[in-house]
């Protein structure tokens, strides 16, 4: 059997709200395995292979506290969106009811 492990490593810095800096790494591992008997050249040799890929870019996460006005703006946006969707649904129902009512008055409703 041939086992291949691909490890991707990304250096990461976390900056907390109190100013503390944490230097660490994020990583992900992908595993592949296949039957390899070593007699046929294109299948590879049996063994365990670990391939590392170090990212040349660093990720920096910075915690920030948002102000109360930012929170209030978000709440107002959500409320406005709810009223907009409710208005669209109400308009659709109202106009549909008017069309159906006109058809009933003309005797075309089946």
TrEMBL record:
GO terms for biological process: endoplasmic reticulum to Golgi vesicle-mediated transport; retrograde vesicle-mediated transport, Golgi to endoplasmic reticulum. It is a multi-pass membrane protein. It comes from the Eukaryota. Pfam families: COPIIcoated_ERV. InterPro entries: Erv (IPR045888), Erv_C (IPR012936). Residues 1-90 form the Endoplasmic reticulum vesicle transporter C-terminal domain. The chain crosses the membrane at residues 68-89. Keywords: Endoplasmic reticulum, ER-Golgi transport, Golgi apparatus, Membrane, Transmembrane, Transmembrane helix, Transport. One of its GO terms (cellular component) is endoplasmic reticulum-Golgi intermediate compartment membrane. It is found in: Endoplasmic reticulum membrane; Endoplasmic reticulum-Golgi intermediate compartment membrane; Golgi apparatus membrane; Golgi apparatus, cis-Golgi network membrane. Its main location: endoplasmic reticulum. Belongs to the ERGIC family. Plays a role in transport between endoplasmic reticulum and Golgi. This is Endoplasmic reticulum-Golgi intermediate compartment protein. It comes from Perca flavescens (American yellow perch).
């Amino acid at each position: 059997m041939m086992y291949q492990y691909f490890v991707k490593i990304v250096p990461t810095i976390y900056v907390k709200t109190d100013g503390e800096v944490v230097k660490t790494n994020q990583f992900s591992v992908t595993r592949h395995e296949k039957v390899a008997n070593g007699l046929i050249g294109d299948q590879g040799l049996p063994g365990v292979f670990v391939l590392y890929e170090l990212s040349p870019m660093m990720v920096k996460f910075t915690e920030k506290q948002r102000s109360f006005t930012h929170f209030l703006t978000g709440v107002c946006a959500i409320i406005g969106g709810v009223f907009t969707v409710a208005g669209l649904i109400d308009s659709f129902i109202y106009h549909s009811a008017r069309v159906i009512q006109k058809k009933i008055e003309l005797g075309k409703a089946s």
